[in-house]
Amino acid sequence: MEKISVVIDGRTFQAEKDTCILEVARRNGIHIPSLCYNSEVTSSGGSCRVCLVEAHQGGRMRLVTACNYPVREGLEVRTDTPLVHRIRRGVLELLLARVPDSEVIREMAAAEGITEARYRKDEGENERYKCIACALCTNVCAEVVGVHAIAMVGRGADKKPATPYDKPSDVCIGCGACAYACPTGAISLKEQDGVRRIWHKDFKMVRCSVCGTPYIPEAQVDWIVRKTGKDRSFFDKCPDHR
Amino acid sequence: MGAINSIEELEAYRRELAAAAKPDLPTVLVCFGTGCQANGSRLVAEAFTEAIKEQGLQVDVNIGIKTTGCHGYCENGPLVVLRPQDILYLKVKPEDVPEIVEESIKGGRVVERLVYRDKVTEELVPRYSEIPFYKHQLRIALRHIGTIDPTNIDDYILAGGYAGLAKALTMKPEDIISEVERSGLRGRGGAGFPTGTKWRSCARVDSDVRYVMCNGDEGDPGAFMDRSIMEGDPHAVIEGMIIGAYAVGSHQGYIYVRDEYPLAVRNLTLAIEAAREKGLLGENILGSGFSFDIKISRGGGAFVCGESSALMRSVEGNVGEPRAKYIRSVERGLYNRPTVLNNVETWANVPEIILKGAEWYASMGTEGSKGTKVFSLVGKVNNTGLVEVPMGISIRELVENIGGGILGGKKFKAVQTGGPSGGCIPERLADLPIDFDSLTKAGSMMGSGGIIVMDEDTCMVDVAKYFTGFLVEESCGKCTPCRDGLPRMLDLLTEITEGRGTEEHLAMLEELCDLLTWGALCGLGTSAANPVLSTIKYFREEYEAHIKDKKCPAGVCKALITYYIDPEACTGCRLCAKNCPQNCITGKRKEAHVIDTSKCIKCGVCKDVCTFDAVRIS
C-alpha cells in the first residue's frame, strides 16, 4: 500500500493512502469526536457531521468529515480552529435539541460549551428518543451481520431505523449488533427469563451448558450455522466456558 | 428504411427526406407540450383533421398537420402555428378551427381575434418571430422545439439532426473534448461546472467501463426547461449523449427522468427505439465500429435525486441518498465506475457545438458563461413561459422585454433564481447580467434556470419560509445540519411571520445558515440557506418590520395584518358582506361597511370580490 505523508494540526504523519483522516488522527493521539463512524463498518460515517475538520489541499480549504475523507499526499488537516468548533457547536446543539436525554450527546455538547439547546425540543416517539438517525445500526445489520433486518425509513426529520412497517422482522436474528454499535444507546434490547426482546420481537436464548447463562439467540445460532457451516454443538457453551 | 450504415448513407437519407418534403405546403403545427395538451390541444388537432376533410381538402396534399413539442408560451396555449406564413394563434379552441382553415389556409387571411395583441400599443402581431416574447430569444438548446414532431426521427434528421454525431465520428475523441472545452460550455443543471473539463477527467481515469448519464430529474418548483426538451426534442439529448460517450469511451448511457414526466418518458422511449432502428444507437453506430446504448431510469420524484450522487444511487436501485463526493463521480460514479453526468440542456447543446464549432458557441454569452441558457420565466410577469436567451442578458431585459413587465402594472420587487438552492435578487440589482458568476456573487445561483418574478405584494420573509418549507419536505434526512437544521429554520421563520420573532431569531437564523453552508453533506444542504441568506441580505428591513413593528409590509403574513374597509371608497354594495364566510361584515345598503376584526379570519374574500378597491390591508 502506498504511503503518503499528511499534516494534522502542524504535525506530519505517515499513513497509507486513502485511510480516513479520523483513523490517522486516532492512531496518533489526536482527538476528533465522532458518532456515526465505526472502523469495522466501511459503509458507516459521513452523516452526523461532528467530526468535520478543515482540509487544506491545492490552495483551497473546505470542511470535510474526518471519518470518510481519504488522506492523500499534500493534505493538511486542522482539527482545532474557530471554524471547526463553531460548526461542531452548531451540529451538537441541533443534536441536543433532538435527543436531550442522551448522555453521550450531552457530554459531547458540554465539551463544546453547550449545556442547553435554544431550539424547540423534539418530541419524537419514545423509541427514537435518543436516536440521531445516523444509520450506523442499519449499516452494521446490512454489512457486518448481513441480514438486512432494519433499514432507514422515511426521510427528513422523520427518518429512522426500522423493521419493515415497524412489525417484527422475519429475518432479524436478534443478534443485537445494532444496539451494540449505536452511539447513543437508542435501541432497546431487553432480556428476561431466557428471552431477548429487540425490534418488537422475542428471541429464545440458548443457555450455556456449563453456567446456564442464556447468551445467544437460537435464531442467531441458526444463522451462523447456515452461513459458516460451523457445528451446532459449538454453541452449547458460552465463550467463557468453551 | 432500415439501419443507416455509414455517414454517407445518413447524408443520402437526409437528401431523400429533403426531396420528398414540401416546404411550401401550408402546414398547421399544433403544440403537444404538456401545458397545451392540458388545455385541450389534442381536441384542437382532431378538429383540424375533421375541418380539413369537411372543407374538401386533403392532408399532405393541400395541407400538412404536425404535432410538436412545447413552444414555451404556455400561458397562451393551446398554440397553433401556420407555416410557411409563420403565424401564431393563441388560446385556440376546437370551435375556432373551421374558421382558421377557411380564412387562413384557404383564404390566406389572418384570424385577428386569435393573434397576439401588444399589451401597451394594442397592436396586432401575427408573426411568431415578431412577438416580443420570441423576438428577443436566441434558441440553440430549443432549436427544434415547436417546429419538429418529436416522435418522428425523420423530422429530426430533416432538420439537420445527427449531423453533429456524424461529424464527431470522424474526429478523434480527444479533439471532441477539446472542442467542448474551447466552447466554454458549462453544466446547465445548476453548478455550472465546465463540461469539457468533466469529460476530460473521466476519459483520463483508467477503467474498462465508463458511463454517460443524463440528469432529467428536474425538481425546482416552477421549472420545466428540461421537461420541454425531453418532450419536444428527445433526439437532441440522445445525439449529445452519443457524442459524449464516444468522446470519453463509454458504451452504456442512462437517462434519469422523473416519472411525473410521462410525456418525456414516452417521447424519449420512442426516440431511443427509433434511433436504434436507424443504426444511430446500439452496435456499430453508423458503421463506425463504435457501440453505445441508452437505458431510461425512471425516478420516483424525490428532489434530492437530482443531486448527482443520490441520482446514481437511485439508478443502482438503492435509496436515493447522497454520499460524500470526496472521490468525484468522474473517477467513481455509477456502480463505482468513471461517470459523466450532465443535465438535459447541456446534452442538447452538444450536437450544435460539434457541428458549428467551439468558436461559434463561444461567440455568444459572457467571458465566463458562454452560449445561451433556457429559463422558465414565471411569477408576477405578463408573459410567462420558457425562453432561451444569450448568457449575460440582464434580469431587467428578461423581465421587461421578454416577460412584458410586471402583471397589473405593479412594482417590480425581486426575482428568485435557481430554485430552492438559489436566492432572491432585488430590483435594484436587476441590471445584473445573468451568468453563472454574477448570480453566485449576488448570493443566488443560476440553478437549472427557474426565474420567479416577484412584485410589491410579495413578502420576502414568506418567500424564505416557502422555500425552507419545501426543503424540509425534501431533505433526505441523512445529515444532521439539513435534517435537523432546516426544521429549526422553518420554526424561526414561522415565528417571525406570526409576530413572535425577536432579534435573537435573526441571529439564530444566520447561525443556522452558516452551519448548513459549511456543514451539510450534499449540494441540497449546502445551498439550502440561500433563500434565507439572500432575503436577509437584501430585505433585512422587511424582517425587522416583522420583528420590531410586528408588521408585514407586503400585507401577506396573516398574523400581522388586518383588513378594513375604507369608508370613502365603499359604496355599500353589500357584495363583501354577502361573501364573507364569517359573516363579520356589517353595514346598511349604500352606506360604508365595517369589518369586525375580532371575527375576521383574514381569508381575503372581501378584498377579492370588492369592485371598488375599498377593502384595504393594514
Care to give the gist of this entry?
The complex is a heterodimer of chains A (242) and B (618). Chain A is built from six helices and eleven strands. By secondary structure, chain A is of the alpha+beta class.
Topology:
The complex is a heterodimer of chains A (242) and B (618).
Chain A (H helix, E strand, L loop, with lengths): L2 E6 L2 E6 L4 H7 L24 E6 L2 E6 L10 E3 L3 H17 L4 H9 L24 H10 L5 E3 L6 E3 L14 H5 L7 E4 L2 E4 L2 E7 L6 E4 H11 L14
Parallel strand pairs in A: 1-5
Antiparallel strand pairs in A: 1-2, 3-4, 3-5, 6-7, 8-9, 9-10, 10-11
Chain B lengths: L6 H14 L6 E5 L2 H5 L2 H14 L9 E5 L11 E4 L3 E3 L7 H10 L9 E2 L6 E2 L6 H4 L17 H6 L4 H7 L3 H11 L11 H10 L6 E6 L8 H8 L1 H15 L3 E7 L3 H16 L15 E7 L8 H8 L23 E5 H13 L1 H5 L9 E8 L5 E6 L4 H8 L9 E6 L5 E4 L9 H6 L8 E6 L4 H15 L5 H18 L5 H17 L3 H4 L3 H9 L1 H8 L15 E3 L9 H5 L5 E2 L7 E2 L9 H5 L5 E3 L1
Parallel strand pairs in B: 1-2, 7-8, 7-10, 8-9, 11-15
Antiparallel strand pairs in B: 1-3, 3-4, 5-6, 11-12, 13-14, 13-15, 16-19, 17-18
Helix pairs in contact in B: 7-11, 7-14, 8-9, 8-11, 10-11, 10-12, 11-14, 18-19, 18-22, 19-20, 20-22, 22-23
Summarize the structure in words.
The complex is a heterodimer of chains A (242) and B (618). Chain A is α+β, with helices and mostly antiparallel strands and 242 residues long. Chain A has 2 domains: 3-80, Ubiquitin-like (UB roll) (Roll); 127-241, no CATH class. Helix content of chain A is 24%, strand content 21%. Chain A is built from 6 helices and 11 strands. In chain A, the strands form 3 sheets. A 5-stranded mixed β-sheet of chain A has the order 2-1-5-3-4, with helices on both faces. A 4-stranded antiparallel β-sheet of chain A has the order 8-9-10-11. In chain A, strands 6-7 form a two-stranded antiparallel sheet. In chain A, helix 2 packs antiparallel against helix 3 (103-111). The longest helix of chain A has 17 residues, at 82-98. Chain A is globular, with a radius of gyration of 21 Å. With 618 residues, chain B is α/β, with parallel strands linked by helices. Helix content of chain B is 39%, strand content 14%. Chain B has 25 helices and 19 strands. A 5-stranded mixed β-sheet of chain B has the order 12-11-15-13-14. Chain B has a 4-stranded mixed β-sheet with strand order 2-1-3-4, covered by helices on one side. Chain B has a 4-stranded parallel β-sheet with strand order 9-8-7-10, with helices on both faces. In chain B, strand 17 (585-586) and strand 18 form a beta hairpin. In chain B, helix 22 (530-538) crosses helix 23 (540-547). The N and C termini of chain B lie far apart (71 Å). In chain B, 53% of the residues are buried. Chains A and B meet through strand 4 and helix 2 of A and helix 18, helix 19 and helix 20 of B.
